[in-house]
């Protein structure tokens, strides 16, 4: 069967999606095509300590990798980490040509294309680069910005309250919305609250979807100590818990980045939300709006020091849908809107 290069890239993207979340590594897919146009090997990367997509495809192809064209979603790595560099594996297998999608934004692993060319392998990048980047949106963001991507999730009433006057906040939204939050946790590398939420709600912050194997890192930010019996500390796996005893959002994100975190689900209360918003460190908002009114109670975010509409923080809605009895609104900051 003769396989077109673009179709092979589409297949490589499909393969990369087989991995739910190989964090802290990116999703990568690879297809090897023989000089006759036959697919001789396929592979995807399934996470740390697992072979890279190129190596899986080369292993499947065996001798038939010699002279083949490797179609890979991400520029082959030039880095020896837990596994050896893919560039060397491609050279050793005698691959004749490499076509990749996204250039590697990881400064530690970049330069693979140059190394392949230096080894005499015809190498071209940029094929379906946007689709390839979308496979690893938050990983790419973290590599490019040097900090994790942050999604602020909140559940608020119609009048923007996250807790009633007596402090009760369970539950503002319905069961379906709360289950939806577990999907957000499954996608995130880390879930973060402040000590205020810790002391008022004693949350566990685990992802409780039965099919999910990998738990996000549970993070508490704030100067107060986390009690030994806090559920967030005792939940399984106990190793997936960290307390950052600091109030600086930048510091907390740098600490998480150091631990290989690329995406954070900010589930804290109004204090933490305000700090991240003011620092310009909210990249996306997922707002569950519940059809109820309180008229008083904790505001979703306390004063941001904004006095006029012209100075409002503005967001662009990217998705809107009903979840049970609540409405989920996804938004991204829109610095382009000036309200005029
Ligand atoms: N509906 C929802 O979606 C939702 C979500 C979360 C919470 N809540 C509700 O919100 C309430 C808790 O709100 P909260 O604002 O106290 O919780 P929070 O934002 O999670 O935690 C606030 C605490 O974090 C620490 N902190 C960390 N960074 C800070 C900074 N930059 N500036 C100031 N303090 C910082 C401070 O404690 P230290 O003194 O320890 O430093 C502060 O008291 C509860 O009623 C909870 O149920 C609702």
Question: What can be said about this structure in brief?
Answer:
The chain has 340 residues and is of the alpha/beta class. The protein contains eleven helices and 15 strands. The strands form three sheets. The protein has an eight-stranded mixed sheet, with helices on both faces.
What does this structure look like?
This protein is α/β, with parallel strands linked by helices and 340 residues long. The chain folds into two domains: 5-141, Cytidine Deaminase, domain 2; 148-333, Dihydrofolate Reductase, subunit A. It contains eleven helices and 15 strands. Helix 3 (86-93) runs parallel beside helix 4. The longest helix is centred in the middle third of the chain and has 13 residues, at 175-187. 42% of the residues are buried. The structure holds NADP nicotinamide-adenine-dinucleotide phosphate. NADP nicotinamide-adenine-dinucleotide phosphate (NAP) is lined by residues 154-155, 162-163, 167, 169, 172, 193-197, 200-201, 221-224, 247, 267-272, 275, 298.
């Amino acid at each position: 069967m003769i396989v077109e290069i673009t179709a092979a890239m589409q297949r490589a993207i499909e393969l990369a999606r087989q991995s739910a979340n190989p964090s802290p590594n990116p999703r990568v897919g690879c297809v090897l095509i023989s000089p006759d146009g036959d697919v001789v090997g396929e592979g995807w990367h399934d996470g740390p300590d697992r072979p890279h997509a190129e190596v899986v495809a080369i292993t499947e192809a065996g001798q038939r990798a010699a002279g083949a064209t490797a179609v890979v979603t991400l520029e082959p790595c030039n880095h020896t980490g837990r596994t050896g560099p893919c560039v060397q594996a491609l050279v050793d297998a005698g691959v004749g040509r490499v076509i990749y999608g996204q250039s590697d934004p990881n400064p530690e692993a970049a330069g693979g294309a140059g190394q392949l060319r230096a080894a005499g392998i015809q190498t071209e990048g940029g094929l379906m680069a946007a689709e390839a980047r979308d496979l690893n949106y938050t990983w790419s963001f973290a590599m490019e910005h040097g900090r994790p991507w942050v999604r602020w999730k909140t559940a608020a009433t119609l009048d923007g309250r996250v807790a009633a006057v007596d402090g009760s906040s369970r539950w503002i939204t319905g069961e379906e919305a709360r289950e939806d939050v577990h999907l957000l946790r499954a996608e995130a590398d880390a879930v973060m609250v402040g000590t205020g939420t810790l002391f008022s709600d004693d949350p566990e912050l685990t992802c409780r979807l039965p099919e999910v194997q990998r738990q996000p890192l549970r993070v508490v930010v704030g100067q107060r100590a986390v009690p030994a019996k806090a559920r967030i500390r005792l939940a399984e796996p106990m190793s997936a818990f960290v307390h950052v005893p600091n109030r600086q959002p930048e510091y907390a994100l740098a600490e998480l980045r150091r631990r290989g975190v690329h995406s954070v689900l900010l589930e804290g209360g109004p204090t933490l939300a305000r700090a991240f918003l003011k620092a310009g460190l909210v990249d996306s908002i997922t707002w569950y709006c519940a059809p109820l009114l309180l008229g008083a109670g904790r505001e979703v975010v306390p004063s941001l020091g904004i006095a006029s509409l012209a100075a409002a923080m503005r967001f662009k809605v990217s998705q809107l849908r009903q979840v049970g009895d609540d409405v989920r609104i996804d938004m991204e900051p829109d610095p382009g809107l000036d309200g005029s």
